[in-house]
Amino acid sequence: MLPKCPHEGCNSELKIGSCSKFLTPRLMEIMSQRIKENAIPVSEKVYCPYPKCSALMSKKDVLESSKSTFIRAEISGARKCLKCKGHFCINCKVPWHSNMSCYEFKRRNPYPPAEDVKLKNLAATHMWRQCVKCNHMIELAAGCFHMTCRCGYEFCYTCGAEWKNKVATCSCPLWDENNIVDHDDDDDDED
Length: 191
What we know:
It catalyses: [E2 ubiquitin-conjugating enzyme]-S-ubiquitinyl-L-cysteine + [acceptor protein]-L-lysine = [E2 ubiquitin-conjugating enzyme]-L-cysteine + [acceptor protein]-N(6)-ubiquitinyl-L-lysine. This is RBR-type E3 ubiquitin transferase. Keywords: Metal-binding, Repeat, Transferase, Ubl conjugation pathway, Zinc, Zinc-finger. The protein is of the alpha+beta class. It has 7 helices and 11 strands. It folds into 3 domains: 1-39, no CATH class; 42-108, no CATH class; 114-180, no CATH class. A 3-stranded antiparallel β-sheet has the order 3-4-5. It has a two-stranded antiparallel ribbon with strand order 1-2.
Protein backbone atom coordinates (compact mmCIF):
# COMPACT_ATOMS: atom_id res chain seq x y z
CA MET A 1 0.00 0.00 0.00
CA LEU A 2 1.08 3.58 -0.43
CA PRO A 3 2.91 4.99 2.58
CA LYS A 4 1.29 7.77 4.55
CA CYS A 5 2.92 11.03 5.56
CA PRO A 6 5.05 10.42 8.69
CA HIS A 7 3.82 13.56 10.46
CA GLU A 8 1.39 12.83 13.29
CA GLY A 9 -2.21 13.47 12.34
CA CYS A 10 -1.50 13.73 8.60
CA ASN A 11 -3.20 11.05 6.52
CA SER A 12 -1.92 12.16 3.12
CA GLU A 13 -0.52 9.39 0.93
CA LEU A 14 2.99 9.96 -0.34
CA LYS A 15 3.29 10.33 -4.10
CA ILE A 16 6.07 8.49 -5.87
CA GLY A 17 7.41 11.70 -7.40
CA SER A 18 7.93 13.36 -4.04
CA CYS A 19 9.82 10.32 -2.71
CA SER A 20 12.53 10.48 -5.38
CA LYS A 21 14.37 13.11 -3.35
CA PHE A 22 15.17 10.70 -0.50
CA LEU A 23 14.88 7.17 -1.97
CA THR A 24 17.53 5.37 -4.00
CA PRO A 25 16.66 4.43 -7.60
CA ARG A 26 16.30 0.77 -6.51
CA LEU A 27 13.86 1.71 -3.72
CA MET A 28 11.95 3.91 -6.18
CA GLU A 29 11.67 0.92 -8.52
CA ILE A 30 10.40 -1.29 -5.67
CA MET A 31 7.88 1.35 -4.58
CA SER A 32 6.64 1.76 -8.16
CA GLN A 33 6.25 -2.03 -8.49
CA ARG A 34 4.33 -2.25 -5.19
CA ILE A 35 1.97 0.52 -6.31
CA LYS A 36 1.25 -1.42 -9.53
CA GLU A 37 0.70 -4.64 -7.55
CA ASN A 38 -1.63 -2.87 -5.11
CA ALA A 39 -3.70 -1.53 -8.00
CA ILE A 40 -4.76 -5.09 -8.94
CA PRO A 41 -7.66 -6.34 -6.81
CA VAL A 42 -6.84 -9.56 -4.93
CA SER A 43 -9.44 -11.59 -6.82
CA GLU A 44 -7.95 -10.39 -10.14
CA LYS A 45 -4.33 -11.36 -9.46
CA VAL A 46 -2.73 -14.15 -11.47
CA TYR A 47 0.94 -15.15 -11.64
CA CYS A 48 2.79 -16.58 -14.62
CA PRO A 49 3.45 -20.29 -13.90
CA TYR A 50 6.88 -20.22 -15.54
CA PRO A 51 9.48 -20.14 -12.70
CA LYS A 52 11.84 -17.82 -14.57
CA CYS A 53 9.05 -15.28 -15.01
CA SER A 54 6.38 -15.45 -12.25
CA ALA A 55 5.03 -12.07 -13.39
CA LEU A 56 2.00 -10.67 -11.59
CA MET A 57 -0.87 -9.77 -13.92
CA SER A 58 -4.55 -9.01 -13.70
CA LYS A 59 -6.90 -11.68 -15.05
CA LYS A 60 -8.68 -9.05 -17.13
CA ASP A 61 -5.49 -7.75 -18.78
CA VAL A 62 -4.12 -11.21 -19.51
CA LEU A 63 -7.46 -12.27 -21.04
CA GLU A 64 -7.60 -9.21 -23.30
CA SER A 65 -4.02 -9.81 -24.42
CA SER A 66 -4.70 -13.51 -25.04
CA LYS A 67 -7.73 -12.99 -27.28
CA SER A 68 -5.47 -12.09 -30.21
CA THR A 69 -3.50 -15.34 -29.79
CA PHE A 70 -6.19 -17.86 -28.80
CA ILE A 71 -9.61 -18.37 -30.36
CA ARG A 72 -12.27 -18.58 -27.61
CA ALA A 73 -9.72 -17.85 -24.86
CA GLU A 74 -12.57 -17.19 -22.41
CA ILE A 75 -13.80 -20.77 -22.74
CA SER A 76 -10.53 -22.68 -23.19
CA GLY A 77 -8.63 -21.03 -20.31
CA ALA A 78 -5.62 -20.44 -22.56
CA ARG A 79 -3.65 -17.31 -21.69
CA LYS A 80 -0.43 -15.61 -22.75
CA CYS A 81 1.86 -14.05 -20.13
CA LEU A 82 2.17 -10.30 -20.59
CA LYS A 83 5.87 -10.40 -19.70
CA CYS A 84 7.48 -13.60 -21.04
CA LYS A 85 4.74 -14.36 -23.63
CA GLY A 86 4.60 -17.97 -22.42
CA HIS A 87 1.26 -19.74 -22.86
CA PHE A 88 -0.47 -21.10 -19.76
CA CYS A 89 -3.80 -22.41 -18.45
CA ILE A 90 -5.63 -19.94 -16.20
CA ASN A 91 -7.63 -22.80 -14.64
CA CYS A 92 -4.75 -25.17 -13.78
CA LYS A 93 -2.08 -22.47 -13.31
CA VAL A 94 0.37 -24.55 -15.39
CA PRO A 95 2.00 -24.13 -18.82
CA TRP A 96 -0.55 -24.54 -21.60
CA HIS A 97 -1.70 -28.10 -22.26
CA SER A 98 -2.92 -27.78 -25.86
CA ASN A 99 -5.37 -30.34 -27.24
CA MET A 100 -6.05 -31.59 -23.73
CA SER A 101 -8.71 -30.69 -21.16
CA CYS A 102 -7.70 -29.69 -17.63
CA TYR A 103 -9.12 -32.97 -16.36
CA GLU A 104 -7.10 -34.97 -18.91
CA PHE A 105 -3.93 -33.00 -18.09
CA LYS A 106 -4.31 -33.71 -14.37
CA ARG A 107 -5.04 -37.37 -15.07
CA ARG A 108 -1.90 -37.72 -17.23
CA ASN A 109 0.27 -35.74 -14.80
CA PRO A 110 -0.66 -37.07 -11.35
CA TYR A 111 2.81 -36.49 -9.91
CA PRO A 112 3.89 -32.92 -9.24
CA PRO A 113 7.25 -31.62 -10.51
CA ALA A 114 10.32 -32.18 -8.30
CA GLU A 115 10.36 -28.50 -7.29
CA ASP A 116 6.79 -28.79 -6.01
CA VAL A 117 7.67 -31.88 -3.99
CA LYS A 118 10.63 -30.04 -2.42
CA LEU A 119 8.38 -27.12 -1.53
CA LYS A 120 5.76 -29.44 0.01
CA ASN A 121 8.46 -31.13 2.12
CA LEU A 122 9.83 -27.76 3.24
CA ALA A 123 6.30 -26.62 4.07
CA ALA A 124 5.66 -29.75 6.12
CA THR A 125 8.94 -29.31 8.01
CA HIS A 126 8.16 -25.69 8.87
CA MET A 127 4.43 -26.32 9.40
CA TRP A 128 3.38 -23.92 6.64
CA ARG A 129 -0.16 -24.15 5.28
CA GLN A 130 -1.48 -23.82 1.77
CA CYS A 131 -4.57 -21.85 0.85
CA VAL A 132 -7.10 -24.26 -0.65
CA LYS A 133 -8.45 -21.57 -2.96
CA CYS A 134 -5.27 -20.25 -4.62
CA ASN A 135 -2.57 -22.65 -3.29
CA HIS A 136 -0.45 -19.80 -1.91
CA MET A 137 1.86 -20.96 0.90
CA ILE A 138 1.32 -19.25 4.28
CA GLU A 139 3.41 -19.24 7.45
CA LEU A 140 2.06 -18.31 10.87
CA ALA A 141 4.76 -16.14 12.47
CA ALA A 142 2.63 -14.73 15.29
CA GLY A 143 -1.00 -14.13 16.15
CA CYS A 144 -4.17 -16.17 16.05
CA PHE A 145 -5.07 -19.13 13.82
CA HIS A 146 -7.52 -17.09 11.68
CA MET A 147 -5.75 -16.67 8.34
CA THR A 148 -6.69 -14.37 5.48
CA CYS A 149 -4.83 -15.29 2.30
CA ARG A 150 -3.76 -12.70 -0.26
CA CYS A 151 -6.60 -14.01 -2.45
CA GLY A 152 -9.10 -13.07 0.28
CA TYR A 153 -9.94 -16.62 1.37
CA GLU A 154 -10.22 -16.99 5.17
CA PHE A 155 -9.42 -20.26 6.92
CA CYS A 156 -8.25 -21.93 10.13
CA TYR A 157 -4.46 -22.40 10.19
CA THR A 158 -4.82 -25.51 12.34
CA CYS A 159 -7.22 -27.61 10.25
CA GLY A 160 -7.79 -25.60 7.05
CA ALA A 161 -11.56 -25.19 7.53
CA GLU A 162 -13.09 -22.11 5.93
CA TRP A 163 -14.03 -19.07 8.03
CA LYS A 164 -17.34 -17.52 6.99
CA ASN A 165 -18.24 -13.93 7.86
CA LYS A 166 -15.25 -13.74 10.24
CA VAL A 167 -16.52 -16.82 12.15
CA ALA A 168 -14.77 -20.19 12.38
CA THR A 169 -16.60 -23.23 10.97
CA CYS A 170 -14.42 -25.59 13.04
CA SER A 171 -13.94 -26.09 16.77
CA CYS A 172 -10.15 -25.56 16.81
CA PRO A 173 -8.73 -23.14 19.39
CA LEU A 174 -8.48 -19.55 18.13
CA TRP A 175 -4.85 -19.14 19.25
CA ASP A 176 -1.89 -20.66 21.00
CA GLU A 177 -0.45 -18.51 23.77
CA ASN A 178 3.08 -19.09 22.40
CA ASN A 179 2.07 -17.29 19.20
CA ILE A 180 0.51 -14.35 21.05
CA VAL A 181 2.73 -13.62 24.07
CA ASP A 182 6.32 -12.44 23.61
CA HIS A 183 8.43 -14.49 26.03
CA ASP A 184 11.69 -12.59 25.43
CA ASP A 185 11.07 -10.34 28.45
CA ASP A 186 10.68 -13.33 30.84
CA ASP A 187 14.45 -13.74 31.16
CA ASP A 188 14.78 -10.18 32.51
CA ASP A 189 12.15 -10.76 35.20
CA GLU A 190 13.89 -13.72 36.84
CA ASP A 191 16.28 -11.60 38.96
